């Protein structure tokens, strides 16, 4: 068993009764008895708990991986049959010095990620269990490391997809984020490559050039792993030191082998140069020996002794015999790495899901989900087609009566001293709603939210201004010719346009707020009267002298009272109607009809690819919604009745006005004005409350969407800063290259003479090309937020 490589520690989790948790979901969301699936539920609990029994000390065979693959397959099925956030799973992060957690997340996808991690961890342990003294053991070890890298590659792909989905609300723990997972991928590839290198040096026939190329590639994998480890908060120091030593070790090994090639080609100066680089790499490696395994240090010290001995001999021979110029590192021919490994994704992850294994009789959650969507459509239909029109009719009749000074005009005439019941009802309703205090509190909340929105917009603008400032500074420093990237106005045209729209929306909202405040101030005095109760109303409403009405106006008033009574009856009927429709809506769920349709025509509800076709349920919904045709008829009938009453009131009220002007006196007029003012203030009070609630919703929505714009602006600034850094580096490299070229053009080539005895032939497998570089695909988010 090898001791100079690393394995990934298993994550830890506690046993849970998964079957019981699934049972609760079935009962609460699927409307089916969980007892029908008792065997499946027991199987789930047993399988999940068997996964928790796998420990870092118990892994010796492939059976543990088989158990994990079985559970992975089950989770894939659960994800298709149950809501993705229906179950909470808790796992400990174990990469660091001590376990962190448990990190509990309500997500089946989170459980899947952890199981894939477990499989990758087990593969890394199996790789270390193989013998490194036999070719077969090295071959299996290499295969296991590549399979481990494949597992972490799958995690990286899944997490990238989750993070790029704006509709995803799954918070990914840090040990699954890019830097940590990328570190593990590169580490597994480095160790897989190291087994290839080990196999190569065990063979007497492998050329030094091949070993050098294998070594430099191994070093590069360790280097990539180290870069990601430095960006992660979860890779511990002893691992980072181990990876660092491995990076320098194989860098030294590559140059040591290259020194042998140079010696065999009589390139004595290059031999010394390679050995010096190797010696320098070993010196750097030894600075990180703290907490590192003794076997790793033994390997390094063994190479160190060889390099030191070879370097002393080479330098002595070159100084005394060959007298060759020792080139600088940059002038040496690059060692071209050759990769023999890659992440291997096991076929187990891509197998089609087995059908009818567990919960085969469970109604697919897509049916439940679609039923919920249809239920929302039903609610929206009733709201927009019936409930809101009914409420609008009530508002129309209130406005209609208020414009005609009803009922205050006849109240003033018929009740010269008593306070009308309508006014008393208004007073009680205003006090129950919170009166003036509720408006002042809402205005204060709106003011605070408005300030927060302004600050949010300013923060967005600050990011753009910061980039503009930094870009202009660098443009002046480097010159417009070299600094050849778009300026801020062009590069940030999309977020700038969004910020402009945000400012426009806020200005419109500010204007609306000012109108509301003005209206509130206009009715503040009547509201204070309402809040004072009976005593305050008696003081505000003047009494009038009793006027004996003639028979004609008395009949008109009686007729108006009758129509107003009919209006009150309409309102009462509508209140009862809205209550009844709420009950009817609640009692008429479309789900049972969808279940019946699913059972009758199960095969016809899926296309050739097995995708559910929701359009098949449209006819059922259309038929279901006809249940409310009688309510639609009521709407039309009550609207017609209201229009007829309004027409009659309009006619009789004109007669009343003609008669009223001949009978009214100054005290009666004052009483009518007071009553009318109170009526109007009550209506405006309700309108202001509605407007303020709409304002609160606007500002809260603004903040939600504005935070997305702020995130976009921050990402833009971060991206531009990375661009600036890369562009500055590129400019400096170009300037340095130009300076070197200029120096070479005026400096004589001292190596061009006196070296005719030197054999310039290269080893057949060493090529003069640029070093291989690996480019990683970095996700570049492209937000298309349309504000508002």
In short:
By secondary structure, the protein is an all-alpha fold. It has helices spanning 18-30, 38-52, 63-81, 108-129, 135-164, 178-202, 208-230, 237-264, 268-286, 294-322, 365-403, 408-414, 421-433, 435-478, 488-491, 493-531, 533-540, 551-587, 591-600, 618-624, 629-663, 666-746; strands spanning 12-13, 88-93, 100-106.
Give a structural overview:
This protein has 788 residues and is mainly alpha-helical. 69% of the residues lie in helices and 2% in strands. The chain contains 22 helices and 3 strands. The chain has a 3-stranded antiparallel beta sheet with strand order 1-2-3, covered by helices on one side. A hairpin with a 6-residue loop joins strand 2 (88-93) and strand 3 (100-106). The longest helix has 81 residues, at 666-746.
How would you describe this structure in keywords?
788 residues, Butyryl-CoA Dehydrogenase, subunit A, domain 3, mainly alpha, Serine Threonine Protein Phosphatase 5, Tetratricopeptide repeat, disordered C terminus
Kindly state the percentage of residues in helix: 55-70%
Question: Which whole number gives the mean pLDDT?
Answer: 86
Oligomer: single chain
Number of strands: 3
Number of discrete domains: 3
pLDDT < 50 stretches: 747-788
Question: What separation lies between the terminal Cα atoms?
Answer: 62 Å
CATH topology type of the largest domain: Serine Threonine Protein Phosphatase 5, Tetratricopeptide repeat
- Strand content is under 5%
How are the SSEs placed, and which strands pair?
Elements: E1 12-13, H1 18-30, H2 38-52, H3 63-81, E2 88-93, E3 100-106, H4 108-129, H5 135-164, H6 178-202, H7 208-230, H8 237-264, H9 268-286, H10 294-322, H11 365-403, H12 408-414, H13 421-433, H14 435-478, H15 488-491, H16 493-531, H17 533-540, H18 551-587, H19 591-600, H20 618-624, H21 629-663, H22 666-746
Antiparallel strand pairs: 1-2, 2-3
């Amino acid at each position: 068993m090898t001791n100079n490589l690393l394995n990934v520690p298993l994550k830890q989790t506690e046993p849970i009764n998964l079957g019981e948790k699934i049972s609760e979901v079935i009962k609460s969301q699927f409307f089916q008895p969980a007892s029908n699936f008792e065997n499946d539920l027991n199987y789930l609990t047993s399988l999940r708990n068997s996964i928790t029994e796998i420990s870092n000390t118990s892994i010796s065979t492939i059976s543990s991986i088989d158990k994990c693959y079985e559970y992975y397959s089950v989770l894939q099925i659960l994800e298709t049959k149950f809501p993705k956030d229906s179950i909470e799973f808790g796992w400990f992060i174990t990469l660091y010095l001590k376990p962190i957690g448990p990190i509990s997340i309500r997500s089946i996808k989170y459980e899947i990620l952890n199981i894939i991690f477990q499989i990758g961890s087990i593969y890394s342990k199996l790789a270390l269990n193989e013998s490194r003294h036999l070719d077969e053991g090295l071959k299996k070890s290499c295969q296991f490391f590549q399979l481990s890298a494949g597992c972490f590659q799958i995690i990286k792909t899944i997490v990238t997809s989750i993070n790029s989905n704006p509709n995803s609300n799954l918070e990914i723990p840090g040990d699954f984020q890019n830097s940590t997972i990328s570190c593990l991928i590169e580490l597994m590839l480095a160790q897989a490559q190291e087994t290839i290198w080990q196999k190569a040096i065990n063979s007497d026939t492998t050329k030094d050039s091949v070993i050098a190329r294998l070594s430099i590639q191994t070093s590069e994998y360790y280097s990539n792993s180290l870069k990601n480890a430095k960006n992660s908060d979860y890779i511990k120091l002893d691992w980072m030191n181990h990876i660092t030593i491995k990076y320098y070790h194989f860098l030294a090994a590559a140059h040591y082998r290259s020194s042998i090639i140079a010696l065999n080609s009589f390139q004595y100066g290059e031999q010394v140069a390679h050995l010096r680089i190797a010696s320098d790499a070993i010196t750097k490696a030894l600075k990180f020996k703290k907490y590192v395994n003794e076997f790793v240090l033994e390997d390094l010290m063994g190479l160190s002794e060889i390099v030191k001995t070879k370097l002393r001999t080479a330098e002595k021979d070159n100084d005394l015999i060959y007298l060759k110029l020792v080139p600088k590192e940059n002038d040496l021919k690059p060692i071209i790495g050759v990769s023999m490994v890659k992440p291997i994704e096991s076929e187990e992850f891509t197998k089609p899901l087995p059908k009818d294994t567990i919960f085969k009789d469970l109604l697919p959650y897509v049916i439940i989900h679609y039923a919920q969507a249809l239920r929302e459509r039903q609610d929206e239909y009733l709201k927009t087609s019936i409930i809101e029109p009914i409420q609008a009719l009530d508002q129309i009749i209130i406005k209609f009566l208020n414009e005609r000074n009803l009922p205050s005009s006849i109240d003033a005439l018929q009740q010269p001293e008593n306070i009308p019941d309508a006014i008393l009802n208004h007073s009680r309703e205003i006090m129950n709603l919170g009166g003036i205090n509720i408006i002042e509190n809402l205005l204060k909340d709106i003011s605070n939210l408005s300030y927060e929105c302004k600050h949010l917009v300013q923060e967005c603008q600050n990011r753009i201004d910061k980039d503009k400032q930094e870009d202009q500074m660098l443009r002046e420093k480097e010159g417009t010719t070299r600094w050849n990237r778009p300026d801020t106005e062009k590069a940030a045209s999309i977020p700038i346009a969004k910020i402009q729209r945000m400012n426009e929306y806020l200005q419109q909202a500010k204007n609306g707020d000012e109108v509301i405040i003005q209206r509130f101030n206009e009715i503040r005095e009547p509201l204070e009267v309402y809040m004072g109760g009976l005593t305050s109303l008696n003081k505000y409403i003047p009494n009038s002298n009793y006027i004996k009405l003639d028979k004609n106006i008395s009949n008109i008033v009686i007729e108006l009272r009758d129509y107003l009574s009919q209006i009150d009856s309409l309102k009462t009927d509508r209140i009862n109607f809205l209550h009844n429709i709420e009950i009817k809506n609640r009692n008429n769920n479309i789900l049972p009809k969808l279940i019946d349709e699913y059972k009758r025509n199960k095969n016809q509800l899926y296309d050739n690819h097995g995708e559910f076709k929701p359009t098949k349920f449209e006819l059922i919904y259309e038929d279901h919604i006809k249940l409310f045709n009688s309510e639609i008829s009521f709407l039309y009938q009550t609207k017609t009745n209201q229009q007829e009453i309004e027409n009659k009131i309009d006619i009789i009220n004109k007669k009343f006005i003609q008669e009223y002007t001949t009978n009214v006196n100054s005290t009666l007029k004052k009483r009518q004005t007071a009553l009318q003012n109170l009526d109007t203030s009550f209506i405006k009070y309700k309108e202001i409350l509605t407007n303020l609630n709409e304002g609160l919703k606007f500002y809260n929505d603004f903040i939600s969407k504005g935070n997305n714009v702020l995130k976009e602006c921050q990402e833009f600034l971060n991206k531009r800063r990375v661009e600036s850094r890369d562009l500055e580096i590129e400019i400096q490299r170009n300037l340095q290259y130009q300076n070197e070229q200029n120096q070479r053009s005026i400096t004589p080539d001292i190596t061009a003479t006196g070296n005719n005895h030197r054999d310039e032939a290269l080893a057949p497998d060493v090529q003069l090309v640029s070093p291989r570089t690996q480019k990683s695909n970095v996700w570049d988010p492209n937000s298309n937020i349309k504000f508002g």
